[in-house]
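Hi L., both proteins are below.
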Amino acid sequence: MSVPTNSVPTRYSDTASKLNSVTDLMFLQSGLTELNSHSIYSDWCLTSNYALLTVSISIMEENVNLSKFSIVKNSEEKASFIKDVSSIIKNLDISNLSIINKLEDIVNTLALNIEHAWNKNLKLVNITRHSKSWWTEECNRFLGNYRTSRSLED
């Protein structure tokens, strides 16, 4: 339940014979004491018969720092990882691939060596509220299209 900070009607009758009434409908999360009251603004109804109901929600700045292991784009670690993987692939023993067990061994060895190269080159990266984790290669492509054409459609 939300209690109004000012007890005034929320629905105003457009005919003189009917009384003004209170029709409040708000969807709020129950149990939050910060949201247990609302304000009614009868002077904000403009052409509507209903007054505007508002709730003030205080939003505190919160700095959530997350960390993850990654290889940073255009870093020395990325170059080293690519060099290591190239060397791993180049040095694979691909003789007797027609034997299923030999093929499985090669694939497993490849996976283990790439994982080792990854772990050797990864770096702890802090993700803050200023990071752009949502930015993708598709975003880069669309931005490039816009910069080339300067068209709002792009």
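That was the first. Here is the second:
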Amino acid sequence: MKEQACHCQPAQQHGWSAVTVIRVRREDSKVDIKPFKVQVPQAVLDDLQERLARTRWPDEVEGAQWDYGANLAYMKELLEYWRTSFDWRAQERAINAFAHFRAEIDGWGIHFIHERGKGPHPMPLIITHGWPSSFFEMLKIIPLLTDPASHGGDPADAFDVIVPSLPGFGFSDRRTRRGPLRAHEAWAKLMTDGLGYRRFAAQGGDIGAGVTSSLGRFYSEQVIGIHISSVDLVWPTPIPDATVLSEAEKDYLERVTRWEKEEGGYSHIQGTRPQTLAYGLNDSPAGLAAWIVEKWRAWSDCDGDVERCFSKDELLTTVTIYWVTGTINSSIRAYYESQHDPNPYPLKLGERIEVPTAVAMFPGEKDLIVPREWAERCYDVRRWTEMPRGGHFAAMQEPELLAQDIRGFFRMLR
């Protein structure tokens, strides 16, 4: 295998920049990979500061709390912290402590982290985030998986961890074409053609659970197993008649219907008129923060206090990534594509995803928690864990619990 040194010119796109680097690339690789560094231009941060200082606040119904949406008093507190105390450069340094790259796959620029495991035989593991999240959610869990021995674990459980940014999210290219995400196809090429892994494992939550499921379904020869930490599972085709459903499954479908009525407004507007919504979210940091943070509060088991689960710095780093990359519109377009082609890869009648599967259910998912018998209609479930705490953003909120479950499941498959 030959290697070739190449000089990479700096790139600039939607408020961030790569840096000039020397890269070493396999000549026989079908995927062009370059080292990358997160480096937001100061002008972008200065503009953000000016917009925060000029926030035009809405009114609020007396005593509304969070009933009508993001609470006014909390948002004022959070944005004041964003304006006066939040240190993006410190977060940027912490982010850049990991090994970042950009790959060109079928004309798409895909950002990803690639951290090597410290153990006798690290297993390659690709982890996919969801919405409104980013690669940043996974930073706490990466060391627990790459270097388990340093965190009370067994070095034999080590992983090579790959964390990409979905197309249209973070530092990956924005999606501007119609059609389903197809991230699983890009991930398979990244792992095999780009990084040279013959076989690999996959994990994900939310949108990432769908991507992970598709990897297990369409690349079963390459995928060792899949671990899903979210309620966004594949549904059976067709949906079984009520006469054959368990009571838990009937209750689940009723809960999903109730949740969609009470909590699903964001999904409906993102799935029908994302462009209209994007003008406000892309132009107003206050609007963007409210739209995102309200979901981090609602989808965690924080008992109404989002900072019981996430710090202001964690929340604002997530929001700032969306802001400096200008990717809120491209990220929510995934909902439009999903609702207009709600099942682009439907299971065939009686089909299941046959790679070994683990499912971790976190209580913060509330009405969307899936019963095991429902999941077993579509997956070969080998491990089922009902977590004691945690929610939708488990990798950030409960990294130790999630890492232990991932290590425990894949230990059986090594």
